[in-house]
Specification:
12% strand, 4 strands
Length: 153
């Protein structure tokens, strides 16, 4: 699959498909992405295995799930499949995704970036550590609705 052609100028949001919080976050982003700036893929999707491997994640394990040695984070990739490919993790990924949404969310992204990254990433890691306990672990990654399918790889 040619990611650059598939995504165009859109960001790719890679998330833990089994995480209740992650799935809610994807639905929240989908509802606000009125300018069609985001695409989504669960971390275990075969379509993103090579992309994850390029960034040092084991292709046969989730970069986000509890059994992996990955960062335990959402990943946002800008310019996927091009020489300008950039990976964002944790709070930086959240800020990058928010910045692509219509107002007022770019302002929220700027405000988030005012908080020193070590501090905001510490808060992110705490939420990530407890996300399955609070929001649950799904047995399978939920399928998108027919209207949402075009937003997923």
């Amino acid at each position: 699959m040619d990611l650059a052609a598939t995504l165009g100028s859109r960001l790719l949001v890679i998330y833990d498909g089994h995480c209740g919080l992650c799935n809610r976050t994807v639905r929240w982003l989908l509802a606000r992405d009125r300018h069609d700036r985001l695409r989504f893929a669960p971390s275990l999707s075969p379509q993103v295995a090579a992309l994850l491997a390029r960034h040092g994640f084991m292709p046969d394990s989730s970069p986000i799930g509890p059994s992996s040695s990955g960062p335990g984070t959402i990943l946002v990739i800008r310019a996927a499949g091009t020489p300008a490919e950039t990976l964002h993790t944790r709070s930086a990924a959240v800020a990058v995704a928010l910045a692509e949404l219509p107002r007022p969310w770019p302002l929220a992204a700027r405000l988030l970036r005012l908080i020193p990254r070590p501090l905001r990433d510490t808060a992110y890691r705490l939420i990530a550590r407890w996300r399955y306990s609070i929001w649950g672990r799904l047995a399978a990654c939920p399928l998108p609705t027919p209207e949402q399918r075009a937003h997923f790889l």
